[in-house]
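Hi U.,

Before I forget, here's the chain from the pilot set. I'm dumping it here mostly so it's searchable later in email.
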Amino acid sequence: MSGLFLTLEGGEGTGKSTQIRRLEARLAGLGWKVVRTREPGGTPLGGRLRALLVETGVDDAPGPRAELLLYAADRAHHVDSVVRPALAAGRLVLCDRYADATVAYQGWGRGLDLGVIAQLNRLATGGLRPHRTVLLDLEPAEGVRRALDRSRRGQEAREVRFEHEERAFHERVRQGYLDVAAREPDRVRVVDAAGSPDEVETRVWAAVEDLFR
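Structure:
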């Protein structure tokens, strides 16, 4: 594959959507053909799964094991239909969350078996790993506050199922992400998500700039 695969990760309210749009604009200005996508929701099928997974008020909302399997199904379809074809065409793929999110949320957050999750991730991705992952790190209480403020302004207003989890859940998710970063420092770069969008953008670029020299 001749393309480049970058992912942005982080808990609720860390600013991933804002920063991925800014990074897309910067990279397009450098001449890259950028495909910006997300999990779940990067395909029509993924959009339907996303409603089941992240929206509040869903009838028969999935439990932890079903949640894990739905994320894996979305990822397998997304990789096969969006990510791999874009990389094969020489594109730069920017993805809002990927396999690390399942480790953090369903593994550390929900307490599901990390070995099983690793197997599912390998199956769903076919072994495809990002060239670089930017982890936006923020104190969980502040992140949840930001996310709920955003929903009250009508931005993805129903997508607050995870925001309503207990604080201890979000603390575990954060620790899960930091554990992934500690295990894979060559791939994962931790970026402080506190501060203004401009300040965070500067930090995000510093975390990936070496790939474009």
